Each structure stands twice: as structure tokens, then as C-alpha cells.
Amino acid sequence: MKHFMIKYQFKNGATEEWHREIGRFIKAIDADPELKGRIGYRVLKNRDDSNYFHLASVADEDAQKTLQSRDFFKHYSAMTRQVSGGEVTATPIEMIDTTA
Fold it and tell me: What is the per-residue pLDDT across 61-87, written as a single tens digit (0 to 9) for each?
């Protein structure tokens, strides 16, 4: 399992529309029979400012490549760059431990 943290500050657009876009992206992952259960995706926002944190996990390289090949992923990636003013950081992260 590989994990990533995507960070940015929301700078452009309407927050409510961006949240709907996030929901559409997550629903598209869950609706894709090749990705369901192989891609985990959570979006969090700092309550006190406009910083967002996306936590993604992929089961394997094939799942990652499949996700990246989807039109909905390409659209969502472009929208993320747009709302952030082009300042997005994606960092591979390592899981140390977790609750059950």
C-alpha cells in the first residue's frame, strides 16, 4: 500500500462548488469497478484557514496507473491546480501504525 498527502491553499473559486467537486471525484472512484476498494481518498481542511489536505492510498502500482488514466482523475487534478493557484504539493508518506 502506498500513501500520499496532497496539500494546498484554496485560492480560487467558490468553496461550496469545490466541495461538490471533491464529492464527485470520490463517488467516481467508488463507482469504478477497477478502483473500488483499491483506492482510498480522504479530504480534510484546516478549520481555521483555507489549507486543504488530501490523504490518498493506493493498493498497488496498477491501481495508481488505472486511476491516473481516468478522465475524472485528469479533470479533478486540473481543478485542484486551478483552485490552488497552481501551488499543490504531493508528498509520498509512510504509514507507521494505525488503529484497527
Answer: 999 999 999 999 999 999 999 999 999
Buried b (16+ CB within 10 A) or exposed e, 13-35: eeeeebeebbeebeebbeebeeb
Beta pairing partners, 9: 51
Neighbouring-strand partners of residue 41: 56
For the entire predicted model, the pTM comes to: 0.91
| Parallel, antiparallel or unpaired: strands 39-45 and 2-9 | unpaired
Report residue 55 as a C-alpha cell: 490523504
- The runs of H, that is alpha helices, within 32-99 are 61-69, 71-83
